[in-house]
Amino acid sequence: MKRRSWIAAGAVLALAVAAGVANSQNPGKSAAPAAQATPMVGTAKATFAGGCFWCVEADFDKVPGVISTTSGYIGGTVANPTYEQVSAKTTGHAEAVEIVFDPAKVSFEQLLEKYWRTIDPTTKDRQFCDAGSPYRTAIFTHGPQQAAAAQASKAALEKSKPFKAPIVTTIEAAGAFYPAEGYHQDYYKKNPVRYNYYRSSCGRDSRLKELWGQG
To answer: Which of 65, 114, 129, 130 lies in disulfide reach of 105, CB 3.0 to 4.6 Å?
Structure first.
């Protein structure tokens, strides 16, 4: 189900007014940024798929040491896919967020710890109310060090057995990342009422609390 269907289910007039105010106060990114082939000097990249990329952006923007987050598509077979194409589940892409971070302030291992606790790693091709392969969970690694760290992190989580179901999150080498359309970038800032309605209706936080507890 496309997220726009959930948005439309709310109080349309109230949401439209609130969203208009939010847009005027938080202009955010007006267009999709260009993909970066390499991170800036002194920074590194991490790419996580965790269901709705609006939510992944919102979660990682709060992490000290994260410089920027970009919603986009990765892991598919079509160049420069549109949201409609990805949502149709025919391109193989996952919704994901490319994170640029300062390794002097936050490590990749710390980002992994954050990532696990923002997703349900036990559900295949689904996150909360969003079903289908675009909403799968995956860690897309940049180089052998990240791959080793991701494998170690997943193994440690499996060993600790915080829940009974197996972990189905995949670890894959990062390929081409295509930034999503401009209106998806910083969506939670530009449209806070609509975003909060979607996140609450989708049951994301209630499920995360069930899986991980308060922490």
So the answer is: 65
Q: Residue 128: which pLDDT band, with cuts at 50, 70 and 90?
A: very high
Q: How confident is the model at residue 41 (pLDDT cuts 50, 70, 90)?
A: confident
Q: Which two tokens stand for residue 139?
A: 């860690």
Query: Catalytic annotation on 129?
Result: no
Supply the pTM of this predicted model.
0.83
Alpha helix ranges (H) inside the chain = 3-8, 12-25, 53-61, 83-87, 108-116, 144-160, 187-190, 192-202, 204-212
52, 55, 129, 202: which one is catalytic?
52
Residue 2 pLDDT: 52
Q: What domains, with CATH codes, occur in the chain?
A: 3-29+39-208 (3.30.1060.10)
